[in-house]
Design a protein that fits this description.
- It is a single chain.
- The protein is an alpha/beta fold and about 300 residues long.
- Helix 2 crosses helix 10.
- About 40% of the residues lie in helices and about 15% in strands.
- It has two domains: about 90 residues, 3-Layer(aba) Sandwich (Rossmann fold), CATH 3.40.50.10860; about 130 residues, 3-Layer(aba) Sandwich (Rossmann fold).
- Strand 5, helix 7 and strand 6 form a beta-alpha-beta unit.
- The protein has a six-stranded parallel β-sheet.
- It is built from ten helices and eleven strands.
- The structure holds guanine.
- Guanine (GUN) binds next to strand 4 and helix 6.
């Protein structure tokens, strides 16, 4: 029987632990965990994500602040907002929703966030800590941290002797995911659009992680029998079978056929997706504990 990895359930248990940690910190120190989310422009998908992050932060008992800036915001205005959030002691986590409108340069903005408030784990200090094997003092990008928690739910903490293949090499996901797997002793290959014979590389994986952004690209014959498959893709495709103009979400893995071959697989929706917000809350409560000089919880 194939195990369908339940990301909703795993996310709920992270959120429960976050609530306990946030309430404990507030009871002991009077510090209320604070998260500021910054969104620029009117991209509807980004507004949906940011709304969900704000609601979850409130549910966790955080002080949840949203800064909504117009699509015409200048680089300087955005930089000044980040600076003021850096200096605001009531804010422990800062997230600037990506992508930014085209006229803005995201990299200097991300790098101007104080590393200890960089709950996206995108600052070079946090990326560097992960790359050098320091998983204790930095902040780890939320989606890979969540995906790794799902991998651990199947394989435990030590991935010695297992081959892991990550398809995708972004700073937000592929690179940190590969680092996390390597830190857990897996033998890791980072594959991408320029990889020769991607299907046969994927088929060598005991743990196959797909983050390519192409609907159902990973087919059953890319999957090693008995593998664990983690699908990070979220793609909206037309679904005329549901009625005219309807759509549905699919991952980067052809789920129906791949689930016959895999031993464990994440569905879309309900797999990695719910973990991202949960790990954002986890990072924020970790940051708040550190700012208060308290030992942070582990997730
Ligand atoms: N846009 C899509 N995913 C993310 C994320 O994890 N962090 C940020 N900042 N923007 C995103």
């Amino acid at each position: 029987m194939t195990t369908v990895i339940d990301g909703k359930k795993a996310a709920t248990s992270v959120i429960e632990a976050v609530k306990v940690a946030a309430a404990g910190l507030e009871a002991e120190t009077g510090v209320k965990t604070g998260l500021a989310v910054v969104i620029v422009g009117d991209d509807p998908a980004s507004h949906t994500y940011v709304g969900a992050k704000g609601r979850m932060a409130k549910e966790c008992g955080f002080n949840s602040i949203q800064h909504t800036l117009s699509a015409e915001t200048s680089q300087g205005e955005l930089a000044r907002l980040v600076q003021s959030l850096n200096e605001d002691a009531s804010i422990h986590g800062i997230l600037v929703q990506l992508p930014l409108p085209k006229h803005l340069n995201s990299e200097p903005i991300i790098q101007s966030i104080r590393p200890e408030k960089d709950v996206d784990g995108l600052h070079v200090v946090n990326a560097g800590k992960l790359a050098t094997g320091d998983l204790e003092t930095g902040l780890i990008s939320c989606t890979p941290a969540g995906a790794m928690l799902l991998v651990r739910s199947i394989h435990g903490e030590d991935l010695s002797g297992l081959n892991a293949v990550v398809i995708g090499r972004s700073n937000l996901f592929g690179k940190p995911m590969a680092q996390l797997l390597l830190n857990a002793n897996a033998t890791v290959t980072t594959a991408h659009s320029r990889t020769k014979d991607l299907a046969s590389v994927a088929k060598g994986a005991d743990i196959l992680v797909a983050a390519v952004g192409r609907p159902e690209m990973v087919k059953a014959d890319w999957v090693k029998p008995g593998a664990t498959v983690i699908d990070v893709g979220v793609n909206r495709i037309d679904a005329p079978e549901r009625g005219e103009g309807k759509s549905r979400l699919v991952g980067d893995v052809a789920y129906a056929e791949a689930s016959d071959v895999a031993a464990a697989i994440t569905p879309v929706p309900g797999g990695v997706g719910p973990m991202t917000i949960a790990m954002l809350m986890a990072n924020t409560v970790i940051a708040a504990h550190r700012a208060a000089g308290r030992k942070p919880p582990k997730f």
